[in-house]
Each structure stands twice: as structure tokens, then as C-alpha cells.
Write a structure and sequence with these properties.
Layout (H helix, E strand, L loop, with lengths): L9 E5 L9 H10 L3 H5 L2 E5 L2 H13 L3 E6 L4 H9 L3 E5 L1 H10 L8 E2 L6 H17 L5 E5 L4 H13 L4 E7 L4 H8 L23 H7 L5 E5 L1 H15 L5 H11 L8 E5 L6 H9 L4
Parallel strand pairs: 1-9, 2-3, 2-5, 3-4, 6-7, 6-9, 7-8
Helix pairs in contact: 1-3, 1-6, 6-7, 10-11, 10-12
Length: 291
């Protein structure tokens, strides 16, 4: 994405081109494939704001097994509709309740095999293939920027890249309304983000950093970049204009981080993690940054 002199050399890893228009299919497909026959026969369930649910529903349908998604009720209609279309049964809950269920790994009345949407070794290993592809396609990469929600994406990508070339820097991008990893790095321990606010960046920006994910992130994350919601909106518009790709808030979050220059002048690869956003909402957001 050439923006001319004075801008970093930013390249895009377009996970919007996946069958579910998001990177989560990589981890979901690997996690479902590695289930034992007995666990697979019980069906699967997960908790999701939309993309993990789509990924697991897609993989479950391919495997011929049932899938239930405990879905955040404020998720974009596009994500909820896609999960239903893929055959998933949805159980709507609030964001706060969903974050508690992710931590507890249980929900009353639900049976089947739970697949964690980010704190799962097989899920993370699937996402590591993004790092392998970045290194194969652009070995001159100096830094990679990925959005951070639960941390599964950046751990997978970072683990692969650090194994191949430890000199490549890995940065997490977080919105100013939800930056628990930045706070955790500042304190040297996993932290909650006290002033967390919901936003259109619904696929990233968690309320806290889980202790196990913190231990996984520490060795592979070189730093974080916090951006404003306005920066994310601007990045969404820029990707649409320059690449003709629709990026959801979490997908454009990495682009906003890369464009800030805080990951260096490049080559910097921004992982555009997904493009599942209601079209009306997308138009409102990019229209606010016209001109």
C-alpha cells in the first residue's frame, strides 16, 4: 500500500479473503481437526463476538458435527447472520457475561466440547500459519502489526516469526478504549483495563489479559501501539480507497498501528484480520472521515 514519501512502507496480509472473511478460520479448522473422535461426536461450542464463531461453525459443518455459539448480543448483524447460515445455534449474552464465560470455560445447560476462541494451543497453532506465509512472501519484513483481543492471533503470528527470524519485531495494536496489553506491559503483569468501553472495534480490545495468554505473549511481542478510534476509521477508509477491501474495525486496527510509524518505516506488514462489518455501519464510519 504505497502512500508516498513520508509514510511507512505498509503491506497488508488480507485475511479478509478467507472463506469466512476472517483469520479465525485457520485456528478453528485446526482445533476441530485435532479433536478426538469422541470429542467431535459430542459437537462443539464456543464464545464469540462473531469471527471465531464463524470459523468454528464452518469447520464443524465441514466435519458434519453440531455447533453452538454463545454470541455477544451486540455483535454486528452480519456476523450473527453468517454464524446462523453456517448452521450454528446461537445463545445471545452480554459482552461482560461472555468475557466471564471465556474465563470459566463453562455455560449452564450447554453440552459438547468447548473450543476456546483464543486460549487454545491448536487454535494458536492454526494462526501461526499467517506468520509462516508472511515470512515466505516477504522475507524482508522488518515488523508485523496485529490487532489484540484475547491474544491468540499475535501469539500465533509472533511465535512463527520469532522462530524463523527473531529480528522481526512484532507489535500489538489496541484501541484507546480497550488497551489491556499496553497496561500489562507497563506493569509487567497481566492487567485489567479499568476504563474499558465498547466500540465498533468489536473483534479486538479485550477487558483484560488472561494470565496464560500473558505468559505466551511476553516472549514474542516487542511492544504495543495504541490508536484512537478516529485513526481506525481513517484506516478503514484508506484500505477501501487504496486496495478496494472492506476491513472491519479490528482489521483496520493493525493498519492504523502500522501507519502511525511506531513500528518503523518498514517494510511493515499489517494483518487485516477480518472484514465482517454491517455495510451500513461501514459507510457511516468511513463517511465520517471523508475528504
Amino acid at each position: 500500500m504505497n502512500l508516498g514519501p513520508g509514510f511507512p512502507d505498509v503491506r497488508l496480509k488480507l485475511e479478509t479473503l478467507q472463506p469466512i472473511n476472517a483469520y479465525k478460520l485457520r485456528g478453528a479448522a485446526n482445533a476441530v481437526a485435532r479433536l478426538s473422535p469422541a470429542d467431535r461426536a459430542r459437537g462443539v461450542w464456543t464464545v464469540s463476538a462473531g469471527n471465531a464463531g464463524q470459523g468454528i461453525a464452518y469447520a464443524a459443518r465441514q466435519a458434519g458435527i453440531s455447533c453452538t455459539v454463545v454470541a455477544i448480543e451486540t455483535a454486528p448483524a452480519a456476523k450473527l447472520d453468517r454464524m446462523r447460515a453456517l448452521g450454528a445455534k446461537l445463545v445471545p449474552v452480554s459482552y461482560n457475561e461472555a468475557w466471564k464465560i471465556v474465563d470459566a470455560r463453562a455455560y449452564p445447560g450447554l453440552e459438547g466440547t468447548f473450543i476456546h476462541p483464543f486460549d487454545d494451543p491448536d487454535f494458536i497453532a492454526g494462526h501461526a500459519t499467517i506468520g509462516l506465509e508472511i515470512f515466505e512472501d516477504a522475507p524482508d519484513t522488518q515488523a508485523v502489526v496485529a490487532s489484540v483481543g484475547g491474544g491468540g492471533l499475535i501469539v500465533g503470528v509472533g511465535s512463527a516469526l520469532k522462530a524463523l527470524n527473531p529480528a522481526i519485531q512484532v507489535f500489538g495494536s489496541e484501541p484507546e478504549t480497550a488497551a489491556p496489553l499496553t497496561r500489562s506491559l507497563a506493569h509487567g503483569s497481566p492487567q485489567r483495563f479499568p476504563d474499558w468501553k465498547a466500540s465498533f472495534v468489536d473483534g479486538a480490545g479485550g477487558q483484560s489479559v488472561f494470565p496464560r495468554m500473558w505468559e505466551r505473549m511476553k516472549p514474542v511481542v516487542d511492544g504495543t501501539i495504541v490508536v484512537s478510534l478516529a485513526d481506525v476509521q481513517s484506516a478503514m477508509r484508506l484500505v477501501a480507497e487504496k486496495v478496494r477491501v472492506i476491513a472491519e474495525g479490528a482489521g483496520a486496527l493493525a493498519v492504523a498501528g502500522a501507519l502511525s510509524g511506531r513500528a518503523g518505516q518498514g517494510p511493515v506488514v499489517a494483518v487485516v484480520s477480518g472484514g465482517n462489518i454491517d455495510l451500513k455501519k461501514f459507510c457511516e464510519l468511513v463517511g465520517a472521515h471523508a475528504g
